[in-house]
C-alpha cells in the first residue's frame, strides 16, 4: 500500500512538548493515558476535553497495539509528546511500525439499524469527529500522528491598578 502523508503543519507549541516513551504498544495505554490526564489537569484543561483527549489517544494506541508491527514482525514501540498549542492541546503519537497513514483511511458506512451494525472499524471516525485536526507524516522510520484538540487558553488578566 502506498502511503501519502497529509500536510503536517509544525505545531506552534506554547511551551516545549513533554515526552513519554512507554515502549511496547501493547502495554503503552494505561501509563500513557494517566500521563496525559496528569498534564491536562496541571494545565487546567476542562474535564470534558480531558475525556476527549483520552478517548482519541486510547483509540490510536489500541490500533497501534492491534495492527502495528515492524518489518520483522516485532510489535511497534510507541512514544508520545504532549504540549500546549496556541489553539489548544497537541498530542503526537509516534510508532516504529510499518508506514500507515490513518488520516487517509475512509470510515465504513454507518448501518441504518442496530441489527445491521457490525462492531469495529469506527474508531478513526471517532478521532476525526473529536479532534480539531489531525496530521500524519512518516519521518526517520517513524509514523507520527499529531492530534490537535481546540481549546482557547485563558488570556492572563493584567494586574489591577492600585
TrEMBL record:
InterPro entries: Anti-sigma-factor_SerPK (IPR050267), HATPase_C_sf (IPR036890), HATPase_dom (IPR003594)
GO MF entries: ATP binding; protein serine/threonine kinase activity
CDD domains, sorted: HATPase_RsbW-like
Histidine kinase/HSP90-like ATPase domain mapped to chain residues: 28-148
UniProtKB keywords: ATP-binding, Kinase, Nucleotide-binding, Serine/threonine-protein kinase, Transferase
Top-rank taxon, per record: Bacteria
Residues annotated as transmembrane: none
Listed name of the protein: ATP-binding protein
Pfam family, one: HATPase_c_2
Keyword Transferase listed: yes
Source organism: Comamonas denitrificans
